[in-house]
Amino acid sequence: MRNRLFITLAILVLSSNISYAQVADNKDFAMWNSVGIKYSPIKRLKLGVEQHIRLKENASETDEYFTEVQAGFELLKDLEIGGAVRFIKENDNVGNNKEWEEHFRYNIDLSYKLDLIKKLDISFRLRYQNKRELGLGEGVEDIAAENLRLKTGVDYNIKSWPLDPEFAVELFNRKRDGLSLIGDAKLSRYRLTFGTSYNLKEFGKFSIYYRYQENTRVDNTFVTEILGLKYTYSIN
Question: What are the backbone dihedrals phi and psi of residue 97, each rounded to the nearest 5 degrees, phi first?
């Protein structure tokens, strides 16, 4: 019964987004898919590796694929510091010079989880993100794309129901050329995410989510609606 509910939800979300999404100058529908493994060698340390593939242009064209290596350590109860690195192959199919680009990205996170009531959890995450393109030719300046990201999430545990709802809001503040990241960063993007997960215990955790993402720069406003599918297997 639980498996049927999860599959039904996935089909409904997928069909509703595909029927609505159309490629336009300022709008797109994308699919983000990932599989990963998590391992905790000691009680307060978490390690993980994930493989991602993302589709764009109404989910008809590969946008990028990458491997991400993660680590997190619990400093205090519900307070965690962590980070990750990504090795990215990005499909630049805009303009005259169409090619696959290589990028390297790392991020540093500080996360806190607050248990308000028995069934409701609120989480906060502050992330510094740095991304650079690799393999640039001589004379090309290597300028990193830097972001500060603030994410707030809400999880609600419904009794006797396996698909508990999850909702998150995330704000991106991107560094502007020649200015500082802390004082002069400007809101460049926001995300709204609604999803759910189903844990099959011995077989891993399956997640599905719908995400609305909008780039807010005046000269390049762009909306992306995203359907995400994720599978994670925990060794212990």
Answer: -95, 80
CATH topology (fold) of 2-234: Porin (2.40.160)
Grouped pLDDT means (10 residues each) for the chain, 236 residues: 51 50 74 97 96 97 98 96 98 85 97 87 96 82 86 90 93 74 74 95 93 84 95 92
Residue 193 near residue 209, CB atoms below 8 Å: yes
DSSP 8-state code for residue 177: T
Bridge-based pairing of strands 27-39 and 205-215 is: unpaired
The predicted structure's pLDDT at residue 84: 98
* DSSP category for residue 24: B
> Residue ranges of the domains in the chain?
2-234
Which has the closest alpha carbon to 57: 88, 94, 87, 15?
Answer: 94
Q: How many CB atoms lie within 10 A of CB 234?
A: 15
